[in-house]
Write a structure and sequence with these properties.
The protein is mainly alpha-helical. The protein has a domain of 218 residues. The chain contains 22 helices and two strands.
C-alpha cells in the first residue's frame, strides 16, 4: 500500500488514535504526578483525551457519511453510520464514567493511572468492535474490551467481593470467548472467508442456488455455528443463559465500573451482534432470510426467556446494584426483540432504545454512586428516608426508574413503544388476507410478553422509591446532604430523559446508520 494511502486511511482512525495516545498520557501522568494529585491529574488527562476523541468523531461525521460503507485496510475496518453511532455512545458513556469516578470514593486511594488507562483501553476495544468488518478485528476488539473489564471489575484489591467479581468475570469470559471462537472457525469453514459481509453473500448465493429442502439442510450447520458465536456475544450483553456472571460482577465491582459494564460493554455486545447479522437485514438478503427462518425463532425465544428471567429474579433482590444487574438482563431481552424482525426498522428501534437506555441507566447509577458514597452500601434498606434528606436526587431517581419501566412522559416510554411497534408491525405483515398465521401469532405474543414484563418491572423499580420516600431511616443513619455537583450530574441525565419524549432528535441521530 502506498504511504500516502496508508496515511489517509490512518486519519480515518483518528478517534482510536487519540484514545491510544490518551492511554499513554494517563500512564505518564501517573508516573510523575504526586500521589495526592494522581486522581485529579489522571482523571483530567483521561477526560480531555475522551473529549478530543469525541471531537474527532464529530469532525469525521460529514466525510464518513459522504463515503457510505467505506472500508479501510482491506475491509478489516468499516467506517459507516453504524460505527459512528456506536462510537458516540461509547465515548459519551466513558466520559460520564470518568466524571463519576472523580467523585466516587470507592476507587479513591489508589494510583489512578491504571484505572483510567483501563477504561480508555476498554473503550478503544469497543470502538474496534463497532467498526469491525472482519472476524479477526471483531475478536480483537471484544478481547481488548474484555481483558480491561476483567481487571476493572476486581480493581478494589483489598475487598473480597471485588476480587471475586473480577475472577468470576474472567472465568466466564474465557469460556465464552473459547466457544465463540469455535463458532467462528465453523463459519470460516462453511464460507471460506473471514469477511463478515462476505459470509452473508456466500451463503445467499449457495442457498439461492439450492432447492428448498437442500437449502434447509445447508442452513443447519450455519445455525449451529451462529449459536456458538451467540454464546460469546450473549455473554457480553448478559443474555440468558449466559447471564450468570452479571449479578455477582455488578454487585462486587466499584459502582462506576458497574455503570460502565451496564452501558458501554453491553452496547459493544449489541454492536457486534449487528455487525454479524446486519447483512441479513437488507433488502437484498431476502432469499437468505426466508431460508433462515430459524433465526427469528431463536432470537424470539432468547428475548422471551431473557426478559422474563431478569424481571422475575429482580423482584427478590435487596441490593440496588444487584437489582440493576437483573434489570440490565431484562433490557437485553427487550433489545433482542428487534432481532426477530429482519428489517431496517428493527435496527432503528434497537439503536433508539440503546441510546435511551444509555441515558436512563447511567443516570440511575449516578444516584446510586452518590448514595453509596454517603451511606456506605447499596442495600435498599440503607436508602430508607433518603427522600427527606435529598429530594432532588430522589426525584431524579424516580424519573430514571419510570423511564426504565417504560412509562410516559419519558424517553423510555418512546423507546419501548417503537420496539413493540416494530414487532406488532411484523405480525400484521405476516397476516394473509386478514387471517392470523402462526408467524403473526408469534409476533403478537412476543409483544404481549414484552408489555407484561414491563408491568412486572414497575414493582421492583418502585420498591426503591418506596424505601426512599415512604419509609423512615434507620436509627443512627449517617446524615445525607446534596451538593451542587450531585444535582448537576443528575440533571444532566434527567433532563434529556424527560425532554426526549420529543424523540425526533434521537431518531435523526439513529438514522445515520442507514
Amino acid at each position: 500500500m502506498p504511504l500516502d494511502e496508508l496515511w489517509r486511511q490512518s486519519l480515518n482512525l483518528l478517534p482510536e488514535m487519540i484514545l491510544a495516545a490518551a492511554i499513554c498520557a494517563v500512564i505518564l501522568a501517573d508516573m510523575f504526578a504526586p500521589l495526592r494529585l494522581s486522581r485529579l491529574v489522571c482523571g483530567a488527562a483521561a477526560t480531555v483525551g475522551g473529549a478530543a476523541a469525541l471531537l474527532a468523531l464529530a469532525g469525521s461525521y460529514g466525510p464518513a457519511m459522504a463515503q457510505s460503507d467505506a472500508t479501510l485496510f482491506e475491509g478489516m475496518f468499516v467506517r459507516d453510520g453504524l460505527a459512528v453511532f456506536f462510537k458516540l455512545v461509547f465515548l459519551l458513556g466513558t466520559e460520564a464514567i470518568f466524571l463519576f469516578s472523580l467523585r466516587s470514593r470507592e476507587v479513591a486511594g489508589y494510583r489512578q493511572g491504571e484505572f483510567y488507562g483501563l477504561l480508555l483501553g476498554a473503550t478503544l476495544g469497543a470502538c474496534f468492535v463497532a467498526s469491525a468488518g472482519n472476524v479477526i478485528m471483531l475478536v480483537l476488539g471484544i478481547e481488548t474490551l474484555s481483558m480491561c473489564s476483567y481487571v476493572l471489575a476486581g480493581f478494589i484489591k483489598h475487598e473480597r467481593v471485588s476480587a471475586e467479581a473480577g475472577l468470576k468475570y474472567m472465568l466466564y469470559g474465557a469460556v465464552a470467548s473459547g466457544v465463540m471462537l469455535f463458532g467462528f472457525s465453523y463459519l470460516y469453514g462453511l464460507t471460506g472467508t473471514l469477511d463478515l459481509a462476505g459470509m452473508a453473500r456466500f451463503l445467499e448465493m449457495r442457498i439461492a442456488g439450492a432447492g428448498a429442502g437442500q437449502a434447509a439442510y445447508q442452513f443447519l450447520p450455519l445455525v449451529l455455528s451462529l449459536l456458538l458465536v451467540l454464546a460469546g456475544l450473549g455473554f457480553k450483553i448478559a443474555m440468558v443463559p449466559f447471564q450468570f456472571w452479571a449479578p455477582d460482577v455488578y454487585q462486587g465491582s466499584p459502582t462506576p465500573v458497574t455503570a460502565y459494564l451496564s452501558v458501554v460493554s453491553k452496547a459493544a455486545g449489541f454492536s457486534a451482534l449487528l455487525r454479524l447479522f446486519l447483512p441479513f437485514f437488507g433488502d437484498g438478503a431476502g432469499q437468505l432470510v426466508s431460508s433462515a427462518a430459524q433465526l427469528p425463532v431463536i432470537f424470539g425465544v432468547l428475548a422471551v426467556v431473557t426478559m422474563t428471567f431478569g424481571n422475575l429474579v429482580a423482584l427478590r433482590q435487596t441490593d440496588v446494584k444487584r437489582l440493576l444487574a437483573y434489570s440490565s438482563i431484562a433490557h437485553a431481552g427487550y433489545l433482542l426483540m428487534a432481532l426477530t424482525v429482519f428489517s431496517p426498522d428493527s435496527v432503528e428501534a434497537m439503536l433508539f432504545y440503546l441510546f435511551v437506555y444509555f441515558l436512563m441507566n447511567l443516570g440511575a447509577f449516578w444516584v446510586v454512586i452518590v448514595l453509596v458514597n454517603r451511606l456506605g452500601g447499596a442495600e435498599i434498606e440503607r436508602f430508607r428516608g433518603v427522600g427527606y434528606k435529598a429530594p432532588f436526587l430522589t426525584a431524579a431517581m424516580f424519573v430514571f426508574l419510570i423511564s426504565l419501566t417504560g412509562l410516559p412522559p419519558t424517553a423510555g416510554f418512546v423507546g419501548k413503544l417503537i420496539l413493540f411497534k416494530v414487532v406488532v408491525g411484523a405480525g400484521v405483515d405476516a397476516m394473509r388476507g386478514g387471517a392470523l398465521t402462526p408467524e403473526a401469532w408469534a409476533y403478537f405474543v412476543l409483544a404481549l410478553i414484552g408489555v407484561i414484563n414491563s408491568v412486572v418491572s414497575l414493582y421492583y423499580y418502585m420498591k426503591i422509591i418506596k424505601a426512599m420516600v415512604f419509609e423512615q431511616p434507620e436509627a443512627g443513619a449517617a446524615p445525607l446532604a446534596e451538593d451542587g455537583m450531585d444535582r448537576l450530574y443528575a440533571a444532566l441525565f434527567a433532563v434529556p430523559v424527560l425532554a426526549f419524549i420529543w424523540f425526533a432528535p434521537i431518531l435523526a441521530l439513529v438514522n445515520i446508520y442507514r
